[in-house]
Specification:
Helix content is about 30%, strand content about 25%. The chain is of the alpha+beta class and about 600 residues long.
Length: about 600
């Protein structure tokens, strides 16, 4: 039988094609045999169209159609006809059907381990991931992957149009410290030596600036050996860029233009620019998070000064021991059962408890009896509590506990009370991050962003001993709806400043040259001021689609233990391969 050639994808057909002879190809979603009639729902990557066979159909073709089952792969030719009044409003092709003249079966299918449904499935995720090639046939997941493709296409076009040069950087690189654990790759040629897979193209894109490519761009694969959760994978994709002769304002302008273009072209939504900006310090004080969700209110109130000398020791001793007291004011009443549940919730963030006040018809409080009337009045006056409002207060000698617990509580209440608007996108630039953070286990300072970030030089120059976390960096994040979508910084380009930062982080001159010598050497030959940013593509697509897990926008994701259920990766290497690499595997002791 002569091979057929596709003329259209299913949803390319419409009432405009009525009377035309066409050829479509795909998978059988469903076959319904109604005596003299056979109806076949044919699925391709664009959607579903109905095929029909009846009394006028060729008998051989009719018999072929009778034996079709779900997931058979077929091609069908026929004439496009109107379905008259039998329109399926749920389908793009619901007003037409194809009166089949010929069918070729390209592949028969066993019964799949789960139904390839048009609707969302309740099938266990592990089973779906084991048969990911089948899971990807589901229209919802299929459309996610195609949507991601459109995002990447718009992304490339935007940066090309704005003068960026698309340059690939190596995937086998030299190990450099800081950040998450690296994935090591042994070298057969250089026995005993290792490459690592890049956590980001950071050093290479800076070297590209030194090389004179003043606008670099790449959709880059990155790798981090770290514990997983819904928004993390061991391998992920970054939208990575760097700009020479640019300050923060210019980088922000380019990225805001990108977001405006992306949202318009893939979602049809006009977003307002410029985006709001807020310092890291203000974010923490107002929302307890460096990635606050601004789609709802619930800003914090600071009661530290108000209650530092109060008679309730839970409050006063927290302040006396260097802590803070923060409150959030919520409209509406809460039952004791709800308050108890919220108290348990904040305890998961190490808060010792949750104080509360309800300004209802009969006001009540968990703490008022421990305070004087004047102290209680001070709280209400400070918060300007209105009728039918509830106040929640967290105090602790560790400010981080207050920020984390009350920040999480703010978002949890908004979720439980359905206060988060749908289809609203609130962007925020968070700036002036701390340059350094202290590692209690290691007893030393680490770069919060990376060691090549430019510190606020006035603060860095004035520092001698003490709290280095107060030194700010020329670093910034772009936050969308409570999720960090990207982060970047202005880079150090002067060798003497880079040497000082590395020394502060504990690298002597010899170690610094061993680890970063090629970058430090490049600065001696004329390095332009430059800065950049990287966006998590997986995370961004997840946000655009309103999903919760990046696994739903990755074709072949890993699970929680970094394994891939479909192929069985990782697997053991055979002895000969290990011998060639000079590697011996030591069995893990139980």
């Amino acid at each position: 039988m002569r091979e057929l050639k596709r003329t259209h994808y299913n949803t390319e057909l419409s009432a405009d094609n009525i009377g035309e002879t066409v050829c479509v190809m795909g998978w059988v979603q469903k076959q319904r045999h109604k005596g003299a009639l056979i109806f076949i729902d044919l699925r391709d990557r664009t959607g579903i169209i109905q095929l029909t066979l009846g009394d006028g159909s060729d008998r051989t073709v009719f018999e072929t159609a009778k034996r079709l089952r779900s997931e058979f792969v077929i091609a069908a030719t026929g004439i496009v006809k109107s379905r008259g009044e039998n329109i399926n409003e749920d389908r793009k092709t619901g007003a037409i059907e194809i009166d089949v003249g010929n069918i070729i079966v390209y592949g028969e299918a066993q019964t799949p381990p789960f139904e390839i449904s048009e609707d969302e499935t309740n099938v266990n995720e592990e089973l779906r991931l084991k048969y990911r090639y089948l899971d990807l046939r589901r229209p919802s997941l299929n459309s996610n992957i195609i949507f991601r493709h459109h995002v990447q296409r718009v992304t490339r076009d935007y940066f090309y149009d704005n003068g960026f040069i698309d340059i690939e950087t190596p995937n086998l690189i030299k190990p450099t410290p800081e950040g998450a654990r690296d994935y090591l790759v042994p070298s057969r040629v250089h026995n005993g030596k290792f490459y690592v897979l890049p956590q980001s193209p950071q050093i290479y894109k800076q070297l590209l600036m030194v090389a004179g490519f003043d606008r670099y761009f790449q959709i880059a694969r990155c790798y981090r050996d770290e514990d997983l959760r819904a928004d993390r994978q061991p391998e992920f994709t970054q939208i990575d860029l760097e700009m020479s002769f640019a300050d923060e304002d210019e980088i922000f302008e380019i990225m805001e233009g990108y977001m405006k273009t992306l949202f318009k072209k893939v979602l049809g939504i006009d977003i307002e620019t410029p985006f709001l900006r807020m310092t890291y310090k203000d974010c923490m004080n107002k929302y307890g998070s460096d990635k606050p969700d601004l789609r709802f209110g619930y800003e914090f109130f600071d009661l530290t000064d108000t209650l530092e000398d109060c008679s309730f020791k839970v409050f006063s001793e927290a302040v006396r021991n260097g802590g803070i007291i923060k409150a959030v004011k919520i409209d509406g009443d809460f039952s004791r059962k709800e308050i108890d549940a919220l108290t348990d919730y904040v305890k998961t963030y190490k808060a010792k408890g949750l104080a509360w006040y309800k300004n209802t018809d009969t006001p009540s409080s968990s703490y008022s009896k421990f305070l004087t009337d004047e102290e209680n009045k001070k709280i209400l006056d400070s918060l300007d509590v209105k009728a039918n409002e509830t106040v929640f207060i967290v105090s602790d000698s560790n400010p981080e506990v207050v920020y984390a617990s009350l920040g999480a509580l703010r978002c949890e209440i908004a979720r439980r009370k359905n206060k988060i608007p749908k289809n609203l996108f609130k962007f925020l630039w968070v700036t002036d991050f701390p340059m350094f953070e202290y590692g209690e286990e290691e007893k030393r300072w680490f770069a919060r962003h990376h060691p090549f970030t430019l510190p606020n030089m006035d603060e860095f120059d004035r520092y001698h001993d003490g709290d280095a976390s107060k030194i700010r960096a020329k670093a910034y994040d772009l936050v969308l709806n409570g999720m960090e979508t990207g982060g970047g910084s202005i880079r150090i380009t002067k060798p003497e400043i880079q040497a000082r930062v590395l020394k502060f982080l504990g690298y002597d001159e010899e170690t610094a040259m061993e680890r970063f010598g090629f970058l430090l050497e490049s600065y001696k030959y004329g390095a332009p001021q430059h800065g950049g940013i990287a966006f998590g593509l997986d995370r961004l697509v997840t946000l655009l689609l309103g999903l919760t897990s990046i696994r739903d926008v990755i074709a072949f994701p890993k699970v929680q233990n970094a394994s891939e259920l479909m192929s069985g990766a990782p697997s053991f290497a055979d002895g000969k391969a290990l011998e060639e690499l000079g590697i011996a595997v030591v069995k893990e002791s139980k």
